[in-house]
Design a protein that fits this description.
1% strand, 20 helices, two-stranded antiparallel ribbon, 410 residues, mainly alpha
Length: 410
């Protein structure tokens, strides 16, 4: 089945985020007194009050958080109309995650009359900001003709945008379109490449289709498809021979090691992750650190972030919060969401850098605007500590950074 509206699967690489330096109000919820018939603790009520205050002051991430609380009945009575009202306030400010939530409500008719046209309209706004989930959902709309006139070329184009960001469902759908020649010129090499990426993340439809199309490829075509998917190593790290998915760790590690040695930053990162987690290789923080550093020096943002985490935790290296911040900053400047969150947390706590709530707000806002929920929650906590002047300065800085279309120097 190709047509699905869903959130991206977690990539099959290991990413670690430092523990938030900004504790949430609900951390010690089990120890709090319970008041009222609802069973809501004082701490939960305080957090709700903080979120509501920030939402009423116009903070889009707080409006989205409050909408989600109403949607799920967390800390408040479930109320779809209130959920939609708060999502709409944030969506009208250009907050991508709220736009996606609102689009989903219209697509499925939850709390509003079902309206595919509205679903497409809000998805398009989020997709224009580069949101992969919205891009995928636009592809589904054009693929199925719901809310727009059916257009295979448009469907393939939107799937391609999301697929290039690692959105697994789009990788599967794009691979199937290349395999059949729907919306694109039939190309089994391209099909194999995209299906390989999706299958490696556990997409069973892709794995089945690979078994169908790979016997039709020449050895050179198959090698080219795998090289396109996995870099200079030329083999799917999850493959053994011509089998699309293999569970043998030694085969995966050998392919990753070969690609890493040939200079693939993605493979170097994967190898570092294998050593860090002990999955596929004996756990070795020093080896993990070395491979992350090699990839990080090629400006590979996930490796820069994980290198920062290891310095922050003192794993394989002497604990050094300043070095951690330096690596977080490099990755955050490339738009890596976890690094933006980690850098914001460091500024909020004064770890490795002088405490600066304006800078904390700036980086947390970036991560929150991309839909990272932990950052949105931390942003509410940081805002509660800020003076009106600091908040005004932070919002101006965030707005200037957004309008510039790039990261401003820290």
């Amino acid at each position: 089945m190709r047509h699905s509206l869903k959130k991206p699967a977690v990539l099959a690489t290991v990413l670690w985020c430092m523990a938030s330096a900004v504790p949430t109000s609900g951390q010690n919820i089990k120890n709090a007194d319970v008041s009222g018939k609802s069973g809501i603790s004082d701490m939960q009520e305080n957090r709700l009050a903080a979120i509501r205050k920030a939402a009423e002051q116009g903070l889009a991430s707080a409006q989205t958080e409050l909408g989600t609380m109403y949607a799920k009945g967390k800390g408040v009575e479930r109320d779809d109309r209130q959920a939609i009202a708060w999502y709409r306030k944030a969506a009208e400010q250009g907050y991508a995650q709220a736009q996606i939530y609102l689009a989903s409500r219209y697509a499925y008719g939850r709390g509003v009359p079902q309206d595919y046209g509205q679903a497409v309209s809000w998805s398009r706004k989020a997709a224009a900001q580069g949101n992969a989930e919205a891009q995928h959902n636009l592809g589904v709309a054009y693929d199925t003709g719901k809310g727009v006139e059916r257009d295979d070329r448009q469907a393939a184009g939107w799937y391609a945008k999301a697929a290039r960001q690692g959105f697994i469902s789009s990788q599967n759908n794009l691979g199937l379109m290349y395999a059949s020649g729907q919306g694109v010129e039939k190309d089994l090499v391209q099909a194999d490449m995209w299906l390989t990426l999706a299958a490696s993340a556990g997409n069973e439809t892709s794995a089945r289709k690979l078994r169908e199309i790979e016997p039709q490829l020449t050895a050179d075509q198959l090698a080219r498809a795998k090289a396109m998917a996995w870099g200079p190593g030329g083999k799917d790290p999850n493959a053994s021979g011509k089998t699309a998915v293999s569970n043998k760790p030694e085969n995966r590690l050998a392919a990753i090691r070969k690609a890493a040695a040939l200079g693939s930053a993605a493979a170097q990162f994967k190898l570092g992750s294998a050593y860090y987690s002990g999955q596929g290789a004996a756990q070795d923080f020093q080896q993990a650190l070395d491979w992350y550093r090699i990839a990080a020096e090629q400006d590979y943002a996930p490796a820069q972030h994980n290198l920062g985490v290891m310095h922050h935790r003192g794993q394989g290296v002497k604990q050094d919060a300043r070095q951690a911040v330096a690596w977080f900053r490099k990755a955050a400047g490339q738009g890596f969401i976890l690094a933006q969150y980690s850098l914001g947390a460091c500024y909020a706590a004064g770890q490795g850098v002088e405490k600066n709530l304006v800078q904390a707000y700036r980086w947390l806002a970036k991560a929150a605007s991309a839909g990272y929920e932990d950052a949105a929650k931390a942003l509410i906590e940081v805002e509660a500590q800020m003076t009106p002047d600091q908040l005004e300065q932070a919002k101006a800085l965030a707005k200037r950074s957004k309008s510039a279309g790039r990261s401003l120097p820290a």
